[in-house]
Design goal:
With about 375 residues, the chain is of the alpha/beta class. It folds into two domains: about 1-160, DHBP synthase (Alpha-Beta Complex); about 170-260 and about 300-370, Rossmann fold, CATH 3.40.50.10990. Helix content is about 40%, strand content about 20%. The protein has 16 helices and 14 strands. The protein has helices at about 1-10, 40-50, 60-65, 85-95, 110-125, 135-150, 155-160, 225-230, 235-250, 260-265, 270-280, 285-290, 300-310, 320-330, 350-360, 365-370; strands at about 15-20, 30-35, 55-60, 75-80, 110, 130-135, 155, 170-180, 185-195, 200-205, 215-220, 255-260, 315-320, 335-340. The strands form two sheets. The chain has a seven-stranded mixed beta sheet with strand order 5-4-3-6-2-1-7, sandwiched between helices. Strands 8-9-10-12-11-13-14 form a seven-stranded mixed beta sheet, sandwiched between helices.
């Protein structure tokens, strides 16, 4: 787990990492550069260090957006035989609406090392795409020496591919304080930190815990900087947040879990990229998938861990999303009742809300005036 955490931070800094072969335990098999920061000199270095032709590794969602539907979770597009391919061209191929098909050979299924690379990118909140190269046997001793000297960081393929599961049950309760809110003056914030240190989540404890209902009112709210703080008109998140706090206060108190899962789990940078694609005609789900993400990248195991830490096992859930009910129930939380939480429908957010209802199954028919 320690090496995986270090690899995530190196990738966020724009540094390459090496994926090791699980079978041998130590053989370097894949050299990986994060797409977001790879530069033209890096492409040349990648080919020289690995001894092989670099490839652009993408998720099946991005491949489908490019007109190459695949049955596997990821695929790699070997870069063309041109000596130097522009890093800008590669970036546009993985994030833009259109591609230059002559830059790539036919796609092939991603190797275990390449799949592991994409998992690390998603965990690091980067674009889920990587420039990768298989390390040829003749180059492996040089790569191994670079690892020994600390010039390159190496991580096992299986551990990297499972990086989302490594922190389960290890959430730490860090700090807490009274924070009176406009709609809930008797409130306390409890901060939790994930073991890799990347994400911090807050439990907003509303009212007197000794007088909470038997089924504690709970709202899972994914952070939305644009909506929660700036009152963006592209969504209804800020209104839902404030309505939920007022509702929990009126119900006798409970908890709002404020989860660091911006943009349905893709992060703020990628959410803004998705907004740009939406401005070109895509809906919110299509835009996320065009960037290589799934329909919803959020994971609610952290919410289960937070509720357990707070000794909450029976809840009255405020949500429009059936996936939250399923996830909490699967984690052993008894969801005994459920209420919906609505914001307002506006000209700017109607398309977004329609996509949530029709594409993601959110229970918004009543709000949207549908049967």
């Amino acid at each position: 787990m320690h090496q995986v955490e270090r690899a995530i931070f190196d990738l966020r800094r724009g540094l390459p990492v090496v994926i090791l072969d699980d079978a041998s335990g130590h053989q370097p098999i894949t050299l990986v550069y994060p797409l977001e920061s790879v530069a033209d000199p890096d492409l040349q270095a990648l080919a020289e260090q690995s001894g092989s032709q670099p490839a652009l590794t993408l998720t099946r969602h991005r491949m489908a957006a490019m007109g190459h539907p695949i049955s596997t979770s990821a695929a790699s597009l070997p870069l063309s035989g041109r000596l130097l391919l522009s890093s800008d061209e590669i970036y546009r191929a993985a994030t833009g609406e259109s591609i230059q098909s002559d830059l790539y050979a036919d796609p092939r299924p991603a190797s275990p090392g390449e799949r592991a690379a994409l998992a690390l990118m998603r965990r690091a909140l980067l674009v889920p795409a990587a420039v990768t190269a298989s390390i040829e046997p003749g180059q492996r001793s040089d790569i191994a020496r670079a690892i020994e000297r600390g010039e390159l960081l190496a991580v096992q393929a299986r551990a990297a591919e499972q990086c989302f599961e490594l922190g389960g049950g290890l959430l730490r309760r860090i700090s807490e304080a009274e924070v009176p809110l406009a709609n809930a003056p008797n409130s306390r914030f409890v901060l939790f930190r994930e073991p890799d240190g990347l994400r911090e989540h807050i439990a907003v404890m509303i009212g007197d815990t000794d007088h909470w209902p038997d089924a504690v009112p709970v709202r899972l709210h994914s952070a939305c900087l644009t909506g929660d703080l700036f009152d963006s008109l592209r969504c209804d998140c800020g209104e839902q947040l404030r309505t939920s706090i007022a509702s929990i206060e009126a119900m006798g108190g409970g908890v709002l879990l404020y989860l660091a899962q911006e943009g349905r789990g893709i992060g703020l940078a990628n959410k803004l990229r998705a907004y740009a694609l939406q401005d070109q005609g895509m809906d919110t789900v299509e835009a996320d998938q065009a960037l290589g993400f799934g329909e919803d990248e959020r994971r609610y195991g952290v919410a289960v861990d937070m509720l357990r830490s707070l000794d909450i096992g029976r809840i009255h859930l405020l949500t429009n999303n059936p996936l939250k009910v399923d996830a909490l129930s699967a984690g052993g939380i008894d969801v005994v009742d459920q209420d919906r939480v609505f914001g307002s429908v506006t000209r700017q957010n109607r398309r977004y809300l329609n996509a949530k209802a029709s594409r993601s199954g959110h229970l918004l028919q009543e709000l949207l005036g549908e049967p």
